[in-house]
Amino acid sequence: MITNMIGVIIRKELRAALVSPKFVASFGVCALLMLLSTFVGIREFQASREQYEAAQRLNEQEMREQTAWGRLGTRVFRAPDPLQIFASGLQNDIGRWSSVDAFNPVKLKNSVYSDDPVFAVFRFIDLAFIVQIVLTLMALVYTYDAVNGERESGTLQLTFANPVPRHVYILGKAVGAWLALIVPLFVPLLMSLGLLSVFDILLSAEHWLRIAIMMGASLALVSVFIMSGVLVSALTSRSSVSFLVCLVGWVVTALLIPRAGMMTAGYLVAVPTAAETDSRLDGFSKERWNVHMKELGERWRARNEQLTGKTEEERRAEREAKEWDWMEEDDRSRKQVQRDIDEYATRLREDVRNRKLEQERLGFTLARFSPVAAFQLALMNLAGTDMGMKARFEDALTEYRKTFNTYRDAKVKESGTFGGIRISFDSQRGMKIEQGREETLDLAEMPRFSDPRVPLRDAFSAALVDIGLLVGAALLACAAAVAAFLRYDVR
Which helix (H) or strand (E) holds 39? Predict the structure, then answer.
């Protein structure tokens, strides 16, 4: 009996929704935005992939043209991921490449937004934006008059002239609105996924699993706002009032709370800016290199004093005999300076990162009072474009830099030359410049960088808290709507 009742209510709601202008408008808007955002995301991904491959080829060519191990360096580029089409997150905010050598610490440079500032003003519209802005608003439009609208039209009192349990009625209304909103969500989404095949965007099984979990999170967010709309409708007697309350609530939860949470965290937990951090590192680096150059000059004066009083032939012979030892001593001193700078940079980066983590934890905790913020954090974790993206890549780059420099130093020692330019003066032959070996380097054994990827298990674990908050919020709103309607005056 109850099953039949709820089925009748759901079918009634579906019929009413499918023939209403709201359904046509929501379906048209969602289809247009999803297809357009997917197309733009695909083109952006293809451009990023082509740029990445071209940069890789150019870097390989430049390295193959090197003739000295001591001057060998490389550049590492971030590979684009197809999931950025659906949840771009911080993909376009952080740098795309970093130099890797013995002299400079790793640092990601040239983000999309720094190269093309216009994109920072008009950010990309992706699936996450459409769900958290457009579909949540549509959910409230579908349900703001679910109860009081029926009361105003007089059908609510007629309905309860029959023995219909109130909880059955309110659940039927919510499920009907939910099903009516699924069509504008899933049909355009399936069409968007079809575009991936049209443009030959290959997705792995793990990618499809991540997309499926994203869809589950999207359904949870939509459910929160559907039940919230039903709740507000059950708490008010007029649909005009409930619409105003829903609109204000949407603005607060979707726009104000996430930003207010991060602004509050930024005020309570101070983090040095990138300019301040770079200034401190540059100051320490210059001071350390100045001390090194002063010590190097003193060493060379002492070496030249040892040659005082000897003939030209004796000086040349002694220089050639001690040249490698001197070069190794200078190289050890230079490496020690670089180690000191690297250690200071690591300590400085860890300090800034710890402060950022504290700020982010506080900001995310406050922002999660909004289901929209929880949804966005869940999708960013699933897509691998979360707040830890930059730290993961820079940590991997730092480890790779150690491996790369170890390989380079071994090759320098094996070749017997650092690869610098040797300038000698002779009273009879004048100045002579030697550039060392002319043949190119064999890089077959050079270690290669591997992009850091977050395993699906770890990504899902990170997103599970936010997905759980969404499901809990939906259930809480559902229980509150049922409780409110039990006391509602249907007359």
Answer: helix 21-64
The separation between CA 99 and the C-alpha centre of its own chain, rounded to angstroms, equals: 21
- Please tell me the predicted confidence (pLDDT) of residue 116: 65
Confidence bin at 461 (pLDDT 50/70/90):
very high
The whole-angstrom separation of Cα 124 and Cα 255 is: 17
Residues 258 and 365: their CA atoms lie apart, in Å, by 10
Nearest in space to 246 (alpha carbons), one of 140, 396, 125: 140
Q: What's the pLDDT band for 121 if we cut at 50, 70, 90?
A: low
Task: Quickly list H helices, 154-273.
Answer: 155-159, 166-198, 205-235, 239-251, 257-268
| Residue 389 CA: distances (Å) to CA of 12, 78, 200, 413 | 47, 11, 26, 36
CA distance 490 to 159: 9
Task: Check the CA dihedral 39-40-41-43 and report its sign.
Answer: positive
- pTM, to two decimals: 0.81
Instruction: Parse the chain into domains and list their residue ranges.
Output: 1-491
Q: Which pLDDT value is given to residue 237?
A: 85
